[in-house]
């Protein structure tokens, strides 16, 4: 769905059962589809709900009808997360390697973002096969996640299986050149962590002329 067809709304309501049901019912009556939904802040019995919908026949009427719901205290039209944060590059692995990959990714993202792109970089240092495998699988469920970098010195086993699963779902996976079987499962293997961050962002950015599919080799 193109950004221009998404309506972002922040709905504040009483923190009680049934409000979400009625909000979704109003959206349905307006012929709109919920593209994204997430809980927001909760303070003194008031809860916020971030919604992004498409296909509303009349956006002003939709907002008005939501404001008229019992329990809803305020509806604000807000920029979508795609417009603000854009595509997400996720970096997972050992602390030192994650930091170096993030350095390259943030520097390269800045170069593209000042030209109108929107790319954000998220990181989490983790150790252990199962926590890493769970995190890899979870990336495929993150909204707007477009690429994953695995930054460590030894990864394999269930992590490799998780990498193959998320790649099958269309996620780009870049791995540092490390011990274990994960490099064999990744789309791209890069030895230098800073360069890994740079190349991942280049592969993600619409403003870059770089495609992993056009590379003649996959290990650098």
Structure keywords:
single chain; 8 helices; elongated; four-stranded antiparallel beta sheet; 220 residues; alpha/beta; five-stranded parallel beta sheet; 29% strand
Summarize the structure.
It is built from eight helices and nine strands. The chain has helices at 19-29, 59-67, 81-84, 95-113, 129-139, 158-168, 182-185, 193-204, and strands at residues 6-14, 33-43, 46-54, 72-77, 87-93, 119-125, 145-151, 172-176, 188-190.
Question: How many beta-strand runs?
Answer: 9
Give the helices and strands as they follow along the chain.
EHEEHEHEHEHEHEHEH
Task: Determine the number of helices (DSSP H or I, runs of at least 4 residues).
Answer: 8
Low-confidence stretches: none
Q: Please estimate the helix content.
A: 25-40%
Could you explain the architecture of this structure?
The protein is elongated and about 60 Å long. The strands form two sheets. A five-stranded parallel β-sheet has the order 6-5-7-8-9, with helices on both faces. The two termini are 35 Å apart. The chain is built from eight helices and nine strands. The model has no long low-confidence stretch (mean pLDDT 91). It has 220 residues and is of the alpha/beta class. It is 37% helix and 29% strand. The chain has helices at 19-29, 59-67, 81-84, 95-113, 129-139, 158-168, 182-185, 193-204, and strands spanning 6-14, 33-43, 46-54, 72-77, 87-93, 119-125, 145-151, 172-176, 188-190. A hairpin with a 2-residue loop joins strand 2 (33-43) and strand 3.
